[in-house]
Structures are given as structure tokens and as C-alpha cells.
Amino acid sequence: MNPEAQDRSGASGLRYSLEVPSLEDLVDVFRIALEANFRNVAVRIVDCPDLTEPPYGMAAKGSWRTYCCVHVGSCLSNWSSLLTTFIFVLEGISKSTKISDVGGVRYLTPLPQLDHKYDLQTIAKESELSPPYFIMGAGCGPYQDVGCNCELMANVAVSSAGVVKNESRIAKLDKDGKCQIERLQTTNLAILGNFFLSAGEPGKVVEIRAEGRTGSENFVSILRQAVRARYQEKPVGIGGVFLVEKGSLNIHVMPDFSKAPLETEGTVDQWLKYFTQPAPMVFMSVFVSEDPGWDLRCEHTHGYGVPDAEGSSQNRGGHYHYGPPNLCVSRVHVETRYHFIR
């Protein structure tokens, strides 16, 4: 256990304060790793742009500062450590930013435990985050509202007056087994989720542009493994959004809950429905470089097709696996400070 851990009886867990990478250090970490896996790479420190504008369509504008991680599952708890921003956040609010690891795959396999239901606004409250705030990330959608199992792309901002701006979407299978994207009106979810919650403020971020993948790893894994190699046993959390402008992507969408036990990786893989979907697509990603022994999901990325003028994602979206050799990722932004919760 971290020697700086302290009891937080009113907040359902422990808080940890850990070392925080500087933006300059992260520029080097990401640049070296990406240059080994992409033909063209540019990494620099910039002001975070307005990510409510196209092509991102986020519920909030950009840039956050301090990070935490909250885990909600069989027990609700908090832990505080260093984390890092890997693109966009709500503009003009306080410093607190949190990562939330909710539920877990153990509630999905071998058979689903459908009593595990959550709400993003409740998670924010339990994370000691008051409006205004912003939440984005990946998880299982609210079967209790949608009527079936589905993938969640969470993208929600709550104003200081409590007004909810919900740009979230879900991906599900239609009766013919095709991918279907729907706008989500609720802030509910189920089973599991990995989210970035921010009450941040405008600031500098690290901008990443990469084109022409030459390595075998996917974009998110390249970044996570690079951070893990640099900081080793010190967990660094990163969350944010990236835009894929060119190529096609390998995506899966979960079918409805399996009635047969999913007891191995092979049976899970056979159960999932895979698609190859064309860019442009925007993805929400949350990852932790090193699991400090808390059974975290270290990497989770969902996304959908860049909305057209009518707001449609053309039924493209789901859980991200990897992109093709001509993958072009642009305008990724990263910033860092301290704090981690579980």
C-alpha cells in the first residue's frame, strides 16, 4: 500500500498522491514510441482547442488539470494518484479531474450479473465532483433503458445549474446482426465502464499527430506501453479523445447477453461481433499504465463515426481494437497533474 495512503471515511476509500509527469517529459515519451510505429509523427505542447466544435462534437470544450480514479463495483471506493490528460475537457471550471473504473468484466462473464447498474451523475457525486463537470469514456450501455446489451460511448456535460448536455451514443446489434448507433438520453449504464470526469480549467496540452502505422500495436496500446515503460510501477492514468481521419478500423459490438457461460477468451471472442468500419471516427479512450493490484481495466476505448450535418454517425461505432497500416490519427491532446482514487 502507498505510504501516503490516508483513510477517507466520508469518501468510501483511500486517497493516494503520486509523482506526476511533466508535459515536456510526456512529449518525449510519446514521440519516441510513435516514431517507432508511424511514418509521420508530430508531438508538441499547445493550448487545448474547443472540442465541442466539429469534427469532435464533445459535450464540453477542453483542458483539465488534476486527476483521480474512482472504482464502483461490489463496493464503492476512491483512490487518488497521478493522472494525465490525453485530450479535451470542460473549460473554465475548477482543478479536479477523476478517472472512474466502474464495475468490471467479472460482472459480464462467465454469466452477466444484471444487478450491477450505475449512473454517471451518481458516479460524479461519489467522486466528490460537483457541477459543472464533464464525463467521457467507454462502458456497457444501459440495457435497462435500451432493452438489450450494448456498447456505451459516454459524452456528458452537466452545467452549474444542473442542466445535462448529453452527446452520448450506444452501439448495438439490430435484428440482422448489423451495427446500429443511437443517441442516448439517459446517464445510466450497467456492468462496467471506464470514464474521465473533469471539473478542469483551460491550459496547455500535448498535441499528437500520427500518420502511416508501421508497427503491429494499436494507437492506444502504443501510448500506454510507452508510459508504462517510462514510469514502470508508478501508475499513470490517461483519458481523452482521438480522431482517426483516414483508413478503416477493427471494431466490435457486443450482442445481447450470452445465456451460455463465457468461460474463456476464445468463447468471448466468438460471442463478440466484429466489423471493419471506415474513418473518419472519433474515439473516447481511458487507460492506466500499470494496475497497482486493484483489478483495473488498463485500457478501454470506444468511438463512433464523426457525425454528419444531421448528427448521424452512419451506424458506425463500438469498441476499438486497431487500425490499418494507412491509419491517420490527428489532434490528440495530453496534459498532466496529480491524483488517483479507487
Task: Walk me through what this model shows.
The protein has 5 helices and 23 strands. By secondary structure, the protein is mainly β. The chain has one domain (16-341): 60s Ribosomal Protein L30, Chain: A (2-Layer Sandwich). The strands form 3 sheets. Strands 3, 6, 15, 16, 17, 18, 19, 20, 21 and 22 form a 10-stranded mixed sheet that branches. Strands 4, 5, 7, 8, 9, 10, 11, 12, 13 and 14 form a 10-stranded mixed sheet that branches. β12 and β13 form a beta hairpin. α1 crosses α4 (219-231). The radius of gyration is 18 Å and the shape is globular. It starts with 5 loop residues before the first strand and ends with a strand. This is DUF1907 domain-containing protein. One of its GO terms (cellular component) is nucleus. Keywords: Hydrolase, Metal-binding, Nucleus, Zinc.
Blueprint (SSEs and pairs):
Layout: E1 6-8, E2 13-16, H1 23-35, E3 38-47, E4 69-72, E5 76-79, E6 83-85, E7 97-103, E8 117-119, H2 120-126, E9 133-140, H3 143-146, E10 151-158, E11 164-166, E12 169-173, E13 179-183, E14 188-198, E15 204-213, H4 219-231, E16 237-246, E17 248-253, H5 265-271, E18 273-278, E19 281-288, E20 299-305, E21 317-322, E22 328-337, E23 340-341
Helix pairs in contact: 1-4
